[in-house]
Amino acid sequence: MLWILLAIVALIIVVTLVLFRVEDLSHLDNHDHPVRDGVPSDAHQEVLGRIRELGQSSRGLRGKARLTALREHMDGLSEGLDLKSEFRACDSPRGEWVIAPGVDTRRRVLYIHGGAWAAGSPRSHRAITDQFSHLANAAVFAVDYRLMPENRYMDGVRDCRKAYAWLLKHGPDGPGEASFVVIAGDSAGGSHALGLLAWVRDNGLRQADAAVALSPSTDLTLTAPSNRDNIRTDPLLGPAFGGLSKIPLPVIWWATLAAFRVSPASAVASPVRGDLRNLPPTLIHASDTEMLLDNARRYTAKARAEGSPVELHTWAGMVHVWHIFVSLLPEADEAFEDIGEFLQRVEAGGDEAKAVQT
Prior knowledge:
single chain, 10 strands
């Protein structure tokens, strides 16, 4: 009987190794990624209070009731904000246009919201999309992709792909070619955004002129050191996902495969494990205290090694996706100024390249 049990265990181990093929990326941890000087502003304490409210909104609830409460609380983040943009619903593809006064609607941003692929919406992230429309002088399309668990992970991926292909030829006022395109997203949406860049390249579509990923998830295998080391310093993701550190990684991989119906080691779920060559200029923001810090660092190091122009700018002591608290947090204002400067550099570089060609 013992030999049969040992044989079964050995078989499970072999199947796990063959099925997931999780490449060791620890060599990417040796790269130096500086952190901006400074300490969090006083407003950061108010932000921490908002995060505690988010946790309390679903306390004591289970299952669907808990998820519903979380979704409703996230959608409420945009209430009471002084937003100058027009928000215009779109049915196909599903989402909303965000149009700041006077912007050039031939310039377009596809924004993919975060929320662990199970929560969030264009409404919950209006603080961010409003800023993007202003700083990029562009119409922003916030895609309302299908969420888990009602839908499969790949349904959301396909929605983002469809929205991008459509965005290239349609603006808020109807058909029309885009003159400048940015793909952006945060957290889970940042993962979709980075994965979308590779899909666009591989399928012969017009590539985005630039990309921006805010605190992105880039690796669902959870092998990066900060997934464990920063649990206590991450007030948002730590309480929600810190317990996963007590579960053996192979068990997590099997559970992820069952829930997502894609391997966590695949490039579609973990962009850092894909081909990162020939990608557009990309800016990544992260906090040195969040669990996803090394996801950002590893992606940046690998992309650079493969020849793609990726920048990582790291803030000290910020919460995960602090950009959404732009109405409260000076560091969020700084982050958006940084994004605006990045896009200006991208466009200046493109203009210089055109001048050389002519």
